[in-house]
Amino acid sequence: xxxxxxxxxxxxxxxRRDLDHWxxxxxxxxxxxxxxxxxxxxxxxLLGGGMTxxxxxxxxxxxxxxxxxxxxxxxxxxxxxxxxxxKTDVSRGVTDRxxxxxxxxxxxxxxxxxxxxxxxxxxxxxxxxxxxxxxxxWHSGLAAALAAFGLLLLLRFAMLWIGIYLGLVxxxxxxxxxxxxxxxxxxxxxxxxxxxxTMPGWxxxxxxxxxxxxxxGAARELFGNPGWGGDSWVAQHAIxxxxxxxxxxxxxxxxxxxxRYRNLDR
Length: 266
Fold this sequence. Notes:
This is Transport permease protein. The chain has helices at residues 2-24, 26-47, 58-91, 94-99, 107-133, 142-169, 175-188, 201-208, 211-223, 233-236, 238-262. Helices cover 77% and strands 0% of the residues. Helix 5 (107-133) crosses helix 6 (142-169). It has one domain (2-262). The chain is globular. By secondary structure, the protein is an all-alpha fold.
């Protein structure tokens, strides 16, 4: 119990350290928050008038369709920020200095995960307020809406452990570009902007089984917003899979991240 208490204390210290960095670099935080808002405005107003979705009418219906997908997409793209922060600490020797201190071996990765999750809460809040400003609403009650936001944060929690692991493993100057090549297809090969049924058979199957698609489908269902639906098993059980996929990813990448951190110099 004493070791566990110190592990929590060390993790809290590292969380405060990451939050202090953001407080000293507000421009970086603001730019990160403005990007998803720009995506909402661009798709909502430039493309919204020419898009039709099942269960929605005109531009307003498309915006209600758009916001849940954009919220989930922002959670996935947050992986890049986690990766870059971890990689920067490793390359500058900060991580080695932490490892030489008498602290819990999980503190660095846990501290980063908590700080990034708090950042995700702020991102969701800003993006949701932007959606409300352009006419998006949820229609299934506050409890269902909170459940949807919970699933979005669960996806972000899974993605940040992938980012932590990649930040500890990937080396080289072009590492961020390589991660972007991984993340962007994951984000767009989904039901966020297009129905998987309109894609070639094999590609549509991949899109339907994309963890992001399950979270997007579950969020639209819980918010009461229009969506593509689907006849496949995974589409019919979007809420279940929006829990299963992140839990599986966390179960894989959390122990991998801690183990990699312990053996970083090998």
